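DM between two lab members

TW: hey, do you still have the Coiled-coil domain containing 68 entry open?
JB: yeah, one sec
JB: this one, 343 aa:
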Amino acid sequence: MTSLAVVEHTFPRKDTGDDVFYFYGSTFAHISEETEYVRKIRGTLEKIQSQLFKNEGNTNHVTSNTDKNLANLQQNGGTGSCENSYESKYIQIIDRLEEKELQLVEAHKENSDLQIKLEATREAGAGALRNATRKLYENYIKRSDEHRKSHEEEKQKLQASAVEHEKVFKHSIEKLHTIAERIQDKHEQITELQNLMQRMEEEKSILLEKKRLLEKEISQRMSDPSYKNGCGNTRIEIATVEEQINHLQQLMMSQHQFLHALIQESEDLKNRLKEQDVTIGDLREKISLLESQNKELKNNVEHWSHDKTKVSKGTFVKESMFDAKSPYSRLLHLRTRYVTEKS
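TW: and the structure you got?
JB:
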């Protein structure tokens, strides 16, 4: 006796929280599993049908033989025990046939349930694909807008920074020109003061020479007795010359200190001029870098604003898309044939 064990088969599903990964994360594995299961169902159905046809033939043969034997026994006056034995065997055969019929009905029912699950899975998969594609497209648009907004804000910051650096650069240029003018003025003052010091040195030399001559004249007169009382005017003139020399000496010292201060201030201005040159060089590099970054951000903004990739918004799945030799088509064919034979 051949028996058929009907086992309900369910597809394993991992609870990942995302329908896209369930229906399309392992599509090849699910299709392979469904194909193998359909093959088993088809083989089992064929075995059941062949076994039923065989059992029906045997049953008809046994039934005819049984009827003949019963007739012979009745004609020959057989005992009641033989009749009971044949009747019990006949009942067992009928029970087996009914059991096989029930198993066949259960198999067809499971086949129908499997078809419903398959259609539901296929429809859910198509819907999940559409939803996943739509979500991807929405995420792409959202990220594109975020990138464009971020680049726009960064561009504005860079432009503001560039304007600020340009202001500082212009101010540094103005300070540089001012320092250069002040250095030029100090240089002219130093030149004039040096010329004045030179003239004062010459005048001091003249006064010293005049004092030396007057002192020589007094010395000569002092040696002559006739001019003993005639040196008063000369002595007054020598005192005047000495006073002029002292005044000139003090003035020269004051001018020398002023000249030293001018030279020191001129050196400080030259150092500041060098610092301004370094600052201007740094500002030029920063402005050049900001212009380059601004150009790059401008290109990025144009890219995220206009050059967007075309994305499919949905996918439609229908039965005509499947091959005639696919397991889905075979399952539909088996179901149609079963309904036709049953009717």
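TW: got it. Residues 80-223 form the longest helix (144 residues). The two ends are 28 Å apart (CA to CA).
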